[in-house]
Amino acid sequence: MIHASHEAVMVDEVLENLVFKQNGKYVDCTFGAGGHSLEILKKLNKEGSLISIDKDETVSINLPSHFSDGRFSLIHDSFSNLQGIFEDEEIDGILVDLGISSTQLDDPNRGFSFQSNGPLDMRIDSSKGQTASEWINTASKKEIEDVLWILGQERASRKIASKICQSREKQTIESTKELSDLILSCVSKKSKKHPATNSFRAIRMFVNNEIQELQKVLEAASYVLCCGGRIAIISFHSMEDRIVKRFFQNKDRIESTIKFNYIKEKFLKPTKEEIENNPRSRSAILRVAEKVC
Ligand SMILES: C[S@@+](CC[C@H](N)C(=O)[O-])C[C@H]1O[C@@H](n2cnc3c(N)ncnc32)[C@H](O)[C@@H]1O
Question: Which of 35, 85, 210, 248 is 20 to 30 A from residue 182's alpha carbon, by CA?
């Protein structure tokens, strides 16, 4: 069953801080395996509603029966289109749980992971856009180096970019194993972390335009939320969290001048217990803020 393996992160904290109105209209921008969506639905009363979005069309395959609920609907789209989707509507709460799910990461055919061999794809929406393999076999050395350094903070970015360019002259790089082996030949294994972790994450973020998508959803959310409406963002990367933090501080905006106030703390982290039960939650940071009008 495709939806079984992703465990939703910081569920109690999301529910407590985001879902303040049982008859409200909520949007889960990142449905994934539906963990957060299900808990939000449980907290709403019969007048409440939840619209969930995901860029990956496969999330709707084998949807569990608890989503056959008149209060729920699922849309296949990018969350950056939030304003287009909810043009004349007012939303009470928006959740954005960034990145990809364990279900996507653990599927070798999606090409997100160095842990198993598969085609080097990495697209969240497999129906469009350039695959990681197409990009890595055509991008300039400088572009690869910049992506690995800026999005991955990979210290060996220059060495890895050179190795990729040398290697692809002989044979194009098509699989996750080929890329992972290339990286391993450039980076020494000093910590518990796999040497390809930073590079794979950076390439995934680049292929899916993740930074721009985040900037756009923050802007769009500021328009579609009602006064006092709340937004909760879970990020797993310091660059993403910095964007969220600065947005709430009214900085680095594209256009919106709408103000936000944090709900209680500026940010929340998973409890020790959650990290023990779900190690993938360890780098999560949750920020929840309300729109001030
Ligand atoms: C961390 S998972 C969410 C897990 C979910 N909260 C749960 O409880 O199962 C992130 C999800 O967001 C989706 N996603 C990533 N970028 C997106 C975007 N720009 N627009 C819409 N969905 C996106 C991914 O396909 C993935 O399913």
Answer: 210
